[in-house]
Amino acid sequence: xxxxxxxxxxxxxxxxxxxxxxxxxxxxxxxxxxxxxxxxxxxxxxxxxxxxxxxxxxxxxxxxxxxxxxxxxxxxxxxxxxxxxxxxxxxxxxxxxxxxxxxxxxxxxxxxxxxxxxxxxxxxxxxxxxxxxxxxxxxxxxxxxxxxxxxxxxxxxxxxxxxxxxxxxxxxxxxxxxxxxxxxxxxxxxxxxxxxxxxxxxxxxxxxxxxxxxxxxxxxxxxxxxxxxxxxxxxxxxxxxxxxxxxxxxxxxxxxxxxxxxxxxxxxxxxxxxxxxxxxxxxxxxxxxxxxxxxxxxx
Length: 299
Fold this sequence. Notes:
75% of the residues lie in helices and 3% in strands. By secondary structure, the protein is mainly alpha-helical. The protein has a domain at 7-214.
């Protein structure tokens, strides 16, 4: 075996908790066609808000809703900069991300906040006698599946269909009298609310919130989306959302597997994470083309 049961469950646990972030990335990059780098700042924003709230004795589950509200506001700022002030979406998101770095430090009163000894979302299961290495995957699995179901439902509502139309054919949706600015602002806000929720859960799971914990979030998110679409497909909204969550789990399992492999004296280290991610994305992007060449065409 390349990994033991604890490593496997840990990878699945991370896949679930970061899967919520991947769903947020899916909303902006695939549904709205809005390249958004705010997520590198909104993930630690959610972690910061949740950690500080829990530190003040607020219920850990309610702190997640506070984190989502903060993430929604961050996403709205990016969208307003783009739609109202006509700043390029990439630049607008970078500006918001940079500002969030300082804001997160202000919220925490420093670069990090510890949650050791504080109540967290997995405590009810642990108090019920479930081991910690099982309690975390169970609670995060329930939350991520529930969020996935709500996103699937939302994208089938009238407003969700407007979001899809705004990303696919903005001219058509404008001609129907839909306020695309409102759709984009709400959609980007919702995306970052999901990312902030993921950050809140990550902070509670790790026992700390750190201002630098969001570095590389967008890369991991995009990699998970691409891997998920390659494996599960994206021919429908339901399949695409499931692919986002499934891609997150596959991505984390692949990372854990790669870090556990050894060839003689060579082995991957945590510093090789970006290299592993790049190789994984390249494999996911080229696999369909290689398959198409190898498989005979059906008449």
